[in-house]
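FAQ
Q: What does a multi-component entry look like?
A: The components come first, one per line:
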Amino acid sequence: MGFPFEPATWDGVSGPIFMGYGGAMPGLFSVIAIGLCIGVLAIGQMSEAKSYAKYK
Amino acid sequence: MEQELADLAAQVAEIQTKGDLTNTMFAELYYYLTIPLMVIIHAGFLAYEMGASRAKNALSSGTKNILAFAFVIPAFYFFGWWVYWGFPTGFSLSEGPNGISGAAYANAIAWPWGESAAYMGPNTEDQIDGVFWGAFALFAATTASIMSGSLIERIQTVGFVILAIILGGFSWTLAAAWGWHADGWLIQKWGVHDFGAAGLVHAVAAFFALGVLINLGPRIGKFNADGTANELPGHNMPFAVTGLMLIIVGFWGFLMGCVVVGGEAWSWGGNYSTIYGTPTNLGALAFNVLMAIGGGIIGAWVVTKDPFWMMSGALAGIISVASGVDLYWPSLTFIIALGAGALLKPAAAVLEKFGIDDAVGAVTVHGTIGIYGMLILGVTAAGYPALGGEGAPTINLVGQFVGSVVFIAIGLITGYVSSFVLKALGMLRVPREAELAGLDTVKIPLQAYPEGIQMSAPPAE
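Then the predicted structure of the entire assembly, as C-alpha cells:
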C-alpha cells in the first residue's frame, strides 16, 4: 500500500492518513471483513447444530 | 502605533486559532468519553443477563450478549451508519430540508469504501465523524443488549446474532433517521421530540424483542397447562441487581451522547443543544436524570419491595423521562418516574397473561415505559418547538402518538418477520433436550461455578 504522500514525511500532511487511502484497498478490506463475518456465522451455525444434535 | 496594532491583531488571531483548536479537541473528547461510558451499559447487561439466568445457562447467556456487541459494531460500520444518513426523509432516500440526508449524501460520507472512506477512518481534518460514529455504534449495541435479556435460556446463538445485527444495524437506525435526524420526517411533519431516545432506542428494541418472543415461545416450565405463569428465578440476584446499577451508570454516557456540543461546523450554534438544535445543557441532565432514578426506585419499591424491580425501576424512571429530559421540571420528572416504577411489575404481569415469557422484563421496562414517556411528553411539553429555527413544528400529543406507533411498528414488524424466517430455517430455538440439559453443558467449554454455589437464606413471606 505504501505511504500515500511524496516525499515520505509527515510535514505538511493533512486529511486521510490511513493505509490504502485513495486506492481500492479500503474497499477491498471492507468486503473481506464483511465476508469474514458471514463466514464465521455460517461456520458457527454448523458447529452449533452439531452441539444440539448430541442432545436430540 | 501601527506596528502595535498589527502585533495586537496577530495575538488576537493566534488566541482565536488556539481557542478554536481547544473547542474542537473538547468536542472530540466529549463524544469519545461517551463511548467507554456506554460500554459500561454492556457490562451491566452482561451481569444482569447472566445473573437472571439459571446456573445451567449463565455462561451461555453471557456468550450471547458478548457476541451481540462484537457483531453489531462492525454491522453498524458496514451499513448502519449509511442507513442513518440515507433514510431520514423516508424510503424515497431523497435529500431533506437541511441538505444532510438522502442516498447521495450517505454515499458521500458513510460507506467504508470509495471516496467516502475519507470519513470512515483516521483523518487529520475530520475530528468528529469517528467519535460521533462511535457514540451511535454504542447506541446500536445497546438496542441489541436490550433485546438479549428477554430471550435467554432458549435461543440459538447464531440466530440471535443475526437478529442483533438486524436490530442494531437497521431497525433502530431507521427509527433514529426518522425521529432523531434533523431531516427526519417524523420531526419535520409531526413535531416528534425524543431527545433521550425513549421511543427510538428503547421502545424499538423492546418491540423488536416482543416480535421475536412471539415466534420463540416461552421457556420450558414457564407456563402451566392452565396458562398460569411460574417464576423461573435467576441463579444470582446480587449479580443481576449490580448489573442494573451498571446500566444506569452507562446511561449517563448514553444521554451525554444525545447532547450536541457547540461551536463546531456541525453544531447547531455556539452552545450545547439537543440533536434537534433546541437548547439544553448538562445541567438539565443532572437535575432530571438523578430525580428520575430516585422516583423510579421509590415507585417500584412501593409496589414490589424487591431489589431487582427497584433497580429496574431506576432504569424505567430514566426511560420514562428520556424523551424530554432536556425540558422537564425536576419535580415533574420525579412524579413521572415514580409512576413508571410503580407501573413496571403490573405491566409485566399483563404481558405474562398473554403467554409471553420475557425473562428480564425488557419489553416492559424499555417498551411500555418508553411509550409511556413518549406520550406523557406530548401532553406536558405541548407547544414547545420540536426543532431549532423559525417556523419549527411544535411538540404535540398527536405527533408523539404517531411517533410511538411508528417506533412500535418498526420494532415489532422487523423483529417478528426476521425471527419468523429464522424459525422456518431452524435457527431460532434450541432443541427441547438441549434446553433441559442447560445451554452451558451443550455448547460452552467452561463451567460457571466449578465449586458450586451455597444456598442462601429463604425469602421473606
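Q: Is there any commentary attached?
A: Sometimes. For this entry: The two ends of chain B are 88 Å apart (CA to CA).
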